[in-house]
Amino acid sequence: MNHSQTRIFARRSAMQAIYQWQLTGYDLVEIERQFVEEHGLGHGNPAYFNELLHAIPNKLDIIDSALAEFTDRRISEIDPVERAILRIGAYELLYRPELPYKVILNECINLAKIFGATHGHKYVNGILDRIAHKSRAVEIADSGKN
After folding, report:
1. Which range marks the domain in which residue 22 is found?
2. All residues at 6 or more sequence positions from 93 whose CB lies less than 8 Å from its CB, including other chains
3. What CATH number is associated with residue 29?
4. Which of 108, 115, 122, 134 has its CA 20 to 30 A from that of 80?
5. Angle, CA of 129, 108 and 46, to the nearest 5°
6. pLDDT for 36-57, tens place per residue?
7. Per the structure, how many domains does the chain have?
8. Nearest-CA neighbor of 137 among 107, 97, 86?
9. Is-above-0.90 flag for pTM?
10. How many whole angstroms separate alpha carbon 82 and alpha carbon 19?
């Protein structure tokens, strides 16, 4: 499995763990322990899973503020699966500049297609695309030149 694939697996696992955290409010360390024991991360990137699981709740106010600017409802009213995906995407757009915005959007759309509601991927795409245009304007402008 290459580096990109291990990050995809870590992102997918983190989405499921963040979903669990959103619904239960359990301690993140306990969720991580339980998730690793039950699901393992042998094919993933445990460090990236750990980063997403812990950094997103730690930066939740900033992430949710970035999302709220472009949502049509309160963050708490967004479907919990799409909310977890949006939080991962917003985190990556804001805090992982080495990851191309197109990769982030594509991976989050794929997660929404697999785990979200029927048209949830369109909602996820719309919100994250707006955040990308605001937070990654230079990168987006440069990609249009190629």
Report:
1. 3-144
2. 66, 101, 104, 128, 131, 132, 135, 136
3. 1.10.940.10
4. 134
5. 135
6. 888 776 567 889 999 999 999 9
7. 1
8. 97
9. yes
10. 9
